[in-house]
Write a structure and sequence with these properties.
Mean pLDDT: 92
Low-confidence stretches: 1-29
Structural class: alpha/beta
Bound molecules: flavin-adenine dinucleotide, 2-acetamido-2-deoxy-beta-D-glucopyranose
Helix content: 25-40%
CATH class of the largest domain: Alpha Beta
CATH superfamily of the largest domain: FAD/NAD(P)-binding domain
Strand content: 15-25%
């Protein structure tokens, strides 16, 4: 049982970039005939200006949210990374996975981090966020999840459809995905459900962000919806903290943000503000959509979090809020390499999924680059609902640095037992006739002699991420049901950091939906207060 690791590419980089430039893709410009909002990397253009809403983080959730708010308000969207347009590492399926290998400290589209557990991981650093570096697999959450988090079902469906009509495609299966599909069925992951957007037990084909030409549509493409003229996108700017004001009230109110040039010096800060019309009921919010690492980090840097930790970094305490950085979870995963050695096949994103053991195990297959000229074929599975959790803490007051995070993978016995089941299932898939024949391996007879104890050890040793980490600003502990941060006004968090649990399936679809959903909720809330205001002042 070999584990696939994420390898960091070093050599060949120059040659590779040369190749990219010379291949100059069809995808090197934004979609035609549509309009994206105004984008600038010039901090001076935004410094000192005011907007109705400020969305921090132009990622998966942030873009859907900003587009929606722009239907009635002016929006500033601040993203620490650059533009995805013209970047083949983001857009072209042929280079899928390369962005995870080619990372650097401050500019690459993926920022790598190693959790305190010692597991290598990644997060997006580009407009489009992690939807610009991920596998693009799209699947709605189960009804169980929607009920559990208490969302309005009708609005959820509308929000999913809004996303799907813009950036989601039905895939053509590659040969490897077809082989994997047979492997999942042979291993007994039934029934076969064909193509479906829904999270249903058995083997199914999900949707994808890659279109029929192999071009990725990130969440940034959603910025064309709504009213792009009312959005200003500030790129290559990293938000350091939220600014609060405190006019004779016992609750602080967010009134702007402080940011730096991502390539600049962390002491050279600039500010942007929320519009403050006379009626305070018509003030907008600062909304953090900086992801499961970014949003708790910004709250801590703004003085909202466990006060002892804030003191350690000499950050003035705005609000002692214990929950910030707590409840960090990552679904433990195991990956088997099914080929004998590295080859140079085209990368292939997971498109078929096995949903097994009463939704508790998710199995996928892909072909992932391990260096710039070599790929490996994998089947991999995750524990869908881990009980183990950890925490996030600051490791620097520079907002460009990763905070330190620990997920405590498999710390709870329940997770370890699930991982044993998962490993047994994964082995059945990997040894299926379909897969064994395709990769040209001897179809080994059942010599599954590995004991439970050995499997537990193997799980501990080989655990890896499925990149579905979440938590840090969870609903009920840091934000309320409307995603407003407890104890302050004018500040919300809307992204994967608010999840108590990941939606069972891959989370991206649900985060895109959540951005749209919460945006609509805010627009409705504003309409309601407006109506009240009009009644009161005839
Ligand atoms: C390699 C990988 C593969 C994955 N594959 C899949 C998949 O196939 N299907 C699926 O459903 N899910 C997948 N996921 C998970 C999914 O992509 C993420 O859960 C989801 O995109 C997270 O969305 P988000 O809005 O919470 O954060 P993000 O999309 O990460 O957005 C956060 C944004 O905030 C920005 N930001 C952070 N800090 C600051 C700051 N201080 N100032 C300004 N901007 C800031 C970041 O640059 C980023 O753009 C994958 C994830 C990864 C990393
Ligand atoms: C932009 O937002 C403002 C609110 O600040 C609104 O009055 C205006 O109608 C919007 N612009 C457009 C073109 O919709
Ligand atoms: C923004 O950052 C990206 C990534 O570091 C870089 O490629 C791009 O040139 C930057 N743009 C500007 C205008 O600075
Ligand atoms: C101040 O806080 C107290 C309780 O902590 C609350 O009862 C009161 O309404 C608050 N006042 C204002 C103006 O918000
Ligand atoms: C990748 O390149 C290296 C160095 O040129 C070579 O040794 C290796 O065999 C190549 N791998 C594949 C799978 O082609
Ligand atoms: C914290 O920062 C230090 C120094 O910058 C670094 O050596 C260490 O690896 C970081 N720790 C984590 C958990 O990121």
């Amino acid at each position: 049982m070999e584990l696939s690791q994420t390898f960091r590419g070093h050599g060949l980089l120059t040659a590779f970039m040369f190749l990219l430039i010379n291949l100059s893709l069809a995808a090197s410009s934004p979609p035609q005939g549509k309009s994206l909002p105004y984008m600038t990397s010039d901090v001076e253009e935004v410094a000192g200006k005011s907007f109705d809403y400020i969305v921090v983080g132009g990622g998966t959730t942030g873009c859907a949210l900003a587009a929606t708010l722009s239907e009635s308000f002016t929006v500033l969207l601040v993203e620490r990374g650059g533009s995805p347009y013209g970047n083949p590492l983001v857009l072209d399926k042929k280079y899928y996975g390369f962005s995870l290998i080619q990372t650097d400290d401050y500019t690459s589209v993926a920022q790598s981090f190693i959790s305190k557990d010692g597991v290598m991981n990644s997060r997006g650093r580009v407009l489009g966020g992690s939807s610009a570096i991920n596998f693009g697999f799209y699947s709605r959450a189960s009804e169980r999840f929607i009920n559990k988090v208490g969302l309005d079902k009708e609005l959820v469906t509308e929000a999913y459809e809004w996303v799907e009509s813009r950036i989601v495609s039905k895939p053509e299966l590659t040969l490897w995905q077809t082989v994997a599909e047979f492997g999942l069925l042979e291993a007994g992951i039934l029934p076969y459900n064909g193509f479906s957007l829904e999270h249903i037990e058995g083997t199914k084909v999900g949707a994808t962000l890659f279109d029929e030409f192999g071009i990725r549509h990130t969440s940034a493409d959603l910025l064309e919806a709504g009213n792009p003229e009312n959005i200003t996108v500030l790129l290559n700017a990293t938000v350091k903290n939220v600014i609060f004001c405190n006019e004779n009230r016992n609750k602080s109110r967010a009134h702007g943000i402080r940011f730096i040039k991502s390539s600049g010096c962390p002491d050279q800060t600039h500010e942007a503000y929320l519009n403050q019309p006379d009626e305070s009921s018509s003030w907008g919010d600062v909304i953090l959509s900086a992801g499961a690492l970014g949003s708790p980090q910004i709250l801590l840097l703004s003085g909202i979090g466990p006060q002892q930790q804030l003191r350690n970094f000499n950050i003035p305490v705005e609000l002692d809020l214990e929950g910030v950085g707590q409840g960090m979870k990552d679904n433990p995963g195991i990956a088997l390499l099914v080929d004998n050695k590295p080859q140079n096949r085209l990368p292939d994103t997971p498109q078929v999924v096995g949903i097994a053991d009463d939704f508790k195990i998710i199995v996928e297959a892909g072909i992932i680059p391990v260096s710039l000229n070599a790929t490996r074929m994998t089947v991999a599975a995750k524990v869908a609902f881990p009980a183990s959790e950890g925490k996030l803490e600051l490791n620097s007051s520079d907002p460009r640095e990763n905070p330190s995070v620990q997920f405590n993978y498999l710390a709870k016995e329940k997770d370890l037992e699930e991982c044993v089941k998962l490993s047994q299932l994964l082995e059945r898939v990997a040894r299926s006739q379909s897969i064994a024949m395709f990769v040209g391996m001897q179809h080994k007879k059942n010599n599954l002699m590995t004991s439970e104890d050995e499997l537990k050890k193997s799980c501990k040793k080989n655990v890896r991420t499925f990149y579905h980490y979440h938590g840090g600003c969870t609903v009920g502990s840091v934000v309320d049901k409307d995603h407003k941060v407890y104890g302050v006004e004018g500040l919300r968090v809307v992204d994967g950091s608010t999840f108590l649990e990941s939606p069972g399936t891959n989370p991206m679809a649900t985060l895109l939906m959540l951005g749209r959903y919460q945006g609509i909720k805010i627009l409705q809330e504003r309409e309601d207060t407006c109506a009240v205001g009009i009644q009161q002042n005839p």
